Amino acid sequence: MSRLVVVSNRLADPRKTAAGGLAVALAEVLSNTGGLWFGWSGKIVEAADGGVAGEGAMHTQQAGPVKLVTVDLSREDHNSFYLGYSNGVLWPVFHYRLDLADFDAGYIAGYRRVNQLFARKLAPMLREDDIIWIHDYHLIPLAAELRALGCNQRIGFFLHIPLPPPLILAAIPGHDWLIRALFAYDVVGFQSKSDHSHFCEYVQTEAHAQNLGEGRWRAFNRTVQAGAFPIGIDVDEFNTLTEAPEGREMYERMKREYSRRKLLVGVDRLDYSKGLPQRMRAFRELLARNPETHNSATLIQIASPSREDVSAYSDILHELESLCGSINGNFGELDWMPVRYMHRTVARARLPGLYRASSVALVTPLRDGMNLVAKEFIASQNPENPGVLVLSRFAGAAEQLPEALLVNPYDTEGTASSINMALQMPLEERRERYEALMKTIRRYDVHWWCDTFLDTLAKAKAEETGTPWLRL
Predict the structure, then answer these.
(1) Helix (H, G, I), strand (E, B) or coil at 37
(2) Residue 360 confidence (pLDDT) above 50
């Protein structure tokens, strides 16, 4: 069995299920193959080894059969690669926010330099029969850098965030360089059919790629297979968390403290893509138009800290705090606050209990690659008395979960009406929707996602060798 090599910006110990995300998804296959997980250590060094930018120290840790290898970044490279290009250019543009992008030409040099650093550090550790799986927007050009060093292994790439339409993508200076870099991969995966269609449209119109059928495209003397591989959750693992002591304790406490209320829940990173101010305005509209919700509907909104050294995040934090305070001031009573807002991270083990105690989940991003909170909420529900998922049509999850109440988060009145419908939905309809949603998330769980992508990569037709990949 070929060894799996995973590369991502940040790592997690696959033995710790509390890490969630990729750690849960990849733990089994990494362990079975004695795999390697490579990425940034999370450490920033003011003066890199030897005084050379980007040449930070490497660290190796054994996590059972899995080897974790990380590299430090210099302050200069962290600022240009991570804060500058990845999160100052790619993140806003890929989430359709051209107005927030900082197209500083200097950032791209650091982005390329760190990807070259990763390639140089990783290449000597690779075996000929390794299968390499690279994750997310931080590392788009990594396969091209590995190819330039002579690596001919099967390499796949998965984009966890949305891919915008060609006209938005084309706003990035050097956008053609980014897409050309994707042709260094054997398989490129996206979260949704919409994202995949944007890729196909771009490579046809901008790169004049040849459509070989069955998701295969040829350009730049390379062939890539592209497709939608919507990521899921480990349903059984999340059910176990729901019934575990911390999950049960949270559920019982919420039911006890809010016995006279109907709970609504939102769990998000504090990010402008999550539509949190729009959600609060819709909740305010709900209260204004439906007096019967007073002293009844309570929204618990958790907004985990995220990139708070970026001005856009500071702005949204202040706006959100102002909206929450205004709603509580205008509608609250001595014994009832409409919004319980927490700007901190809640332990993953406690979230299932909160989800199960809630009548409604509000998952209303302005744009999201997938959004696993929607699936976690479904997995944690009591089948006999399930809650209702209110889901943005602009989340990747909406393609898979049409039985949720789909909303346009930009439409304040429409979203408020859907929230009210969720609060009043009869038990029979709630059960019908829940059963359909549960069937989907169980069928297309995280193991399906992992197995399907890696099976596609293993079966991808090997590219002809002989012509070396030229450095981008």
Answers:
(1) strand
(2) yes
Q: Which residues pair with 386 in a beta bridge?
A: none
DSSP 53: T
* SS3 label, residue 30: helix
Question: Which of 128, 154, 130, 129 shows the shortest CA–CA distance to 143?
Answer: 154
* Chain Cα centroid distance, residue 350: 20
Domain match, 397 and 271 both: yes
Q: Which residue in 39, 116, 38, 114 sits closest to 76, CA to CA?
A: 114
Q: Which two tokens stand for residue 398?
A: 């909406």
pLDDT at 20 over 80: no
User: Is there a single domain that holds both residue 45 and residue 119?
Assistant: yes
What residues have CB less than 8 Å from 141, skipping those under 6 apart?
Answer: 111, 112, 115, 177, 178, 181, 184, 472
Residues 6 or more apart from 422 whose CB is under 8 A from it?
Answer: 359, 360, 388, 390, 405
The span from the first CA to the last CA of the chain, in angstroms, equals 32
- Tell me the sheet residues that pair with 225: 187, 216
Residues designated as active site: 160, 368
Q: Which amino acid is at 393?
A: R
Residue 17, classed as helix, strand or coil, is helix
Whole-angstrom CA distances from 401 to 293, 404, 437 are: 27, 6, 6
Q: Are residues 329 and 419 in the same domain?
A: yes
Looking at the structure, tell me whether residues 211 and 195 fall in a common domain.
yes
Q: Which residues are CB-neighbours of 243 under 8 A, at least 6 positions away?
A: none
Cα distance between residue 169 and residue 184, in whole Å: 19
Band of the pLDDT at 309, cuts 50, 70, 90? Answer: low
464 domain residue, yes or no: no
Distance CA 233, CA 317 (A): 29
Predicted TM-score (pTM) of this structure: 0.94
Q: Which residue range(s) make up the domain with 240? A: 235-442
Q: Round to whole Å and give the CA distance between 400 and 392.
A: 12
Instruction: Determine how β-strand 131-135 pairs with β-strand 154-158.
Output: parallel
